[in-house]
Amino acid sequence: RRIEVMADPGLWDGNKVQFAEWWVKMTVWVVQNVNTLLTPQDKATAVWSQMKGPTAGCYVQACFMHCINLGTWPTWHELKGDIKSYFAPQSEVEWSHKQLQELKQG
């Protein structure tokens, strides 16, 4: 009999207030299932398939299409960074600072 260490974290509906709790559970779940989720594609699919709602759903659709078209998938490290940068709650000051850092001239 297999004992499940971490229950499936469930769906995240795009609610930023609930993101932190869901993200911790999802991260632990992926790490606990490292022997099942062997490839970057497995990990990305497992995480993205648990994200829904207008914003998260559009993000997931764009990510899947990007990966399918290029034939490459983000590493676990890249995936975590991308999702946190898009969805982790930020103060208005942090968001503004990040936007300024990403500006490019010309």
Characterization of this structure:
- This protein is mainly alpha-helical and 106 residues long.
- 62% of the residues lie in helices and 0% in strands.
- It is built from 5 helices and no strands.
- It is globular.
- The model has no long low-confidence stretch (mean pLDDT 88).
Notable features of this structure?
single chain; 106 residues; mainly alpha; globular
Number of H- or I-type helical stretches? 5
The portion of residues forming beta strands comes to under 5%
Uncertain spans = none
Distance between the termini: 61 Å
Average predicted confidence as pLDDT = 88
- Tell me about the largest β-sheet: none
Radius of gyration: 15 Å
The secondary structure category is mainly alpha
Portion of residues within helices: 55-70%
Q: What's the SSE blueprint?
A:
Layout: H1 16-32, H2 40-48, H3 54-70, H4 76-87, H5 92-102
